[in-house]
Design brief:
Layout (H helix, E strand, L loop, with lengths): L10 E6 L11 E6 L4 H13 L4 E4 L5 E3 L4 E7 L8 E3 L3 E5 L4 H11 L1 E2 L11 H7 L12 E7 L5 E5 L16 E8 L1 E2 L2 H18 L19 H7 L6 E2 L2 E3 L7 E3 L5 H19 L8 E3 L1
Parallel strand pairs: 2-5, 3-5, 4-16
Antiparallel strand pairs: 1-2, 6-7, 7-11, 8-12, 9-10, 9-11, 13-14, 14-15
The structure holds flavin-adenine dinucleotide (FAD) and uridine-diphosphate-2(N-acetylglucosaminyl) butyric acid.
Flavin-adenine dinucleotide (FAD) binds next to strand 3, helix 3 and strand 11.
Length: 293
């Protein structure tokens, strides 16, 4: 009997991950599972452990590069309605980890709640943004977070308060859990002002970052007190093409998929960027995107 039989429609085999990443790259996941709710997620984690199957949780796939041969384990995506609830309180909002940041920001705007506008233009889910501590230069999602609910690999649910989540630049300790939801501080503000801020940020992004081709945003982290984009640009790499992948003409830390890029093309381009920056500036760039093997 298949180990996943009890999960019914929630499990697919050999699902191409290029369908689920913003780079539109990635071979198949051996198992691709979208649990219905927390109970089914709990059952799933138990089955994965018992059958010794390794797994990744996938959000919007906007910060991952999946290898062309795919992932020989399970990919768990919290995409069912049970993981997409948004609850507003008097000065807080609780968002399920499957809620996209776009929907969360729209919901806050509609309710007249301010505090998360700085996330405008980041195409992830709440869960992915928490794990990555997503943000901009001035602010990151941790700055607005009160607490996060997680399930550990044994299926136990617990609440982690902000200071225990070990947030730092594009990092947290949440990766070792399955994030279920986050509770954020918000405050009332006229909707007109919320919209104005979001419009400004969106316009800035469209002037400075590449939204015309599939990408995963910045591929490298910024070195302390500098910008990887500036360094790669100074090496003259904008527009360089390997296979179907190119260094964006707009922002040198973005690699774009011009149509038929493979993960191998992206990895070769990343190596070139890293090598040139090292040679010219003696700075070692480290990837921001997560490479799934
Ligand atoms: P994924 O890419 O799916 O996953 C990222 C990591 O989180 C993986 O380790 C995954 O296993 C884990 N994960 C996801 N969900 C869960 C969960 N529920 N529980 C446990 N683990 C989970 N990032 C920024 O920080 N700032 C920016 O300004 C920014 N701009 C971007 C612009 C563009 C055009 C693009 C394409 C990307 C940009 N990004 C930016 C990168 C990316 O959008 C963020 O890192 C985002 O938060 C990732 O969310 P996701 O849901 O796509 O996560
Ligand atoms: N620059 C260049 N050439 C380029 C890109 C940038 O010279 O091709 C210069 C800019 O002119 C500017 C400096 O580098 O003087 C910084 O550029 P920018 O303001 O665009 O910010 P960044 O450091 O490149 C960071 C984050 C972005 C985030 C923005 C906005 C990282 C790796 N990148 O970019 O996050 O949106 O700030 O605050 O931290 C992401 O993480 O995926 C991401 C897009």
């Amino acid at each position: 009997m298949n180990w996943y039989k009890g999960l019914g429609q929630s499990c697919k085999c050999r699902e191409p991950l290029k369908r689920h990443t913003t780079l539109k790259i990635g071979g198949p996941a051996r198992f691709f599972i979208e649990p219905r709710d927390r109970d089914q997620l709990q059952e799933l984690l138990r089955l994965l452990r018992r059958n010794k199957i390794s797994f990744h949780v996938l959000g919007m796939g906007s910060n991952v590069l999946v290898r062309d041969r795919g992932f020989n384990g399970a990919v768990v995506r919290l995409h069912a309605p049970g993981f997409k609830k948004i609850t507003f309180g008097s000065n807080y909002v609780i968002a399920g980890s499957g809620v996209s940041l776009v929907r969360l920001l729209l919901g806050c705007y509609q309710e007249g709640f301010s505090g998360l506008e700085f996330l405008t233009g980041i195409p992830g889910t709440t869960g992915g943004a928490l794990v990555m501590n997503a943000g901009i230069k001035e602010k990151c999602i941790a700055d607005a977070l009160e607490s996060v609910t997680v399930m550990d690999k044994n299926g136990s649910i617990k609440t982690i308060v902000n200071k225990d989540a070990r947030f730092s630049y594009r990092s947290s300790c949440l990766k070792k859990f399955v994030v279920l939801d986050g509770r954020f501080r918000v405050r009332r503000r006229p909707r007109l002002l919320i919209k104005k801020r979001m419009d400004e940020l969106r316009a800035w992004r469209h002037r400075n970052q590449d939204y015309s081709f599939p990408s995963a945003g910045c591929v490298f982290k910024n070195p302390v007190n500098d910008s990887a984009g500036r360094l790669i640009d100074a090496c003259g790499l904008k527009g360089v093409i390997i296979g179907g992948a190119a260094v964006s003409l707009l922002h040198a830390n973005f690699i774009v998929n011009r149509g038929k890029a493979s993960a191998a093309d992206v990895l070769k381009l990343m190596l070139l960027m890293k090598t040139q920056v090292k040679r010219r500036f003696s700075i070692t760039l480290t990837p921001e995107i997560e490479i799934w093997r």
